[in-house]
Amino acid sequence: MSIYIAICDDERSIREELERTLSKIFERLKVSYEIDVYATGDDLCAKMEKGTHYDIVFLDIEFANNKKNGIEVGKRIRDMNENDIVSIVYISWEMKYSMQLFDIRPLNFLIKPLTSEKIEKVIKTYLKLSGLWVNDFVYKIRRDTFRVKIKDIVYMESMKRKLTLHLADGRKEEFYGTLKEVYQEQLHKFDFLFIHGSYVVNFDYVSALKPDMIALGHDGITLPVSKLKKKEVKANYFSIMERRGVV
Predict the structure, then answer these.
(1) Which of 101-115, 116-130, 134-148 ranks highest by mean pLDDT?
(2) 175 and 104 in one domain?
């Protein structure tokens, strides 16, 4: 399933940077997407009135060469066939508009300059609200289904066909499956590092990355990094740190 995005801003540099940032976020999250870009609210509304659907609209408030501002465009979008479905994210250099947006029920209101962190938070909020993003890890034991919070997983260990979840409270949960399959289906969207054929770790619990091992700030645990995954792990580790503004 694809997420359909519209960017509407009269500043070319903002449009281009927002499109680049969104593309990186969706590709990292492995979510299919399509992005259309507009310089005026009239162009956006004209396209939507012809039947084009968007899941999220990033909408500027002030348009220098357009009589309608973003608030009026937002109301027009809501009035189209009583459209309460599209999530509108307002962007502006000014905070003063925030109280005028109440009736439009925007998903968020972002102050320029935009940062990747702010934008990613909005996207994750949308994915959660739409049911496309789940914060629970789901697994089965025989016919029973169990759930644990993703944030509570310190690392996952594989031995033959048995997987073990090592949780922050010290519990261990065992079930059958393959580490690669579980990582691709549920954990790749979150900040987990696939460090070894037998281990996937939660970045939130990592205290140090060394050439041949990774240290977890949880009971002094250290886990090996395989030779085949060294470059990949290092690149992913620093990519997460950069995105979070740590480096």
Answers:
(1) 116-130
(2) no
For the stretch 72-99, pLDDT in tens is: 888 888 888 566 789 999 998 877 666 6
Residue 142 DSSP class: T
Number of domains composing the chain: 2
Under 8 Å between Cβ of 37 and 60: no
Which residues, in sequence order, are CB contacts of 234 under 8 Å at separation 6+? Answer: 209
- The CATH number for 68's domain is 3.40.50.2300
Question: Please, are residues 200 and 179 in contact by the beta-carbon 8 Å criterion?
Answer: yes
Q: What tokens were used for 39?
A: 């310089």
Q: Which helix (H) or strand (E) holds 167?
A: strand 162-167
Task: Record the pTM.
Answer: 0.61
21 plus 110 within the same structural domain: yes
Q: Determine the number of helices (DSSP H) and then strands (DSSP E) in the chain.
A: 6, 15
DSSP designation for 232 = H
Could you list the residue range(s) of the whole structural domain that residue 237 is in?
A: 136-243
Long-range contacts of 120-124, Cβ-Cβ distance < 8 Å, separation of 24 or more: 120/25, 120/243, 122/56, 122/89, 123/22, 123/25, 123/26, 123/29, 123/56
Domain of 226, CATH number, reads 2.40.50.1020
240 residue type, one letter: I
Which pLDDT tens digit goes with each residue over 157-186?
999 889 999 999 999 999 999 999 999 888
Among residues 79, 110, 129, the one where a domain terminates is 129
Give the distance between the most distant pair of CA atoms in the chain.
65
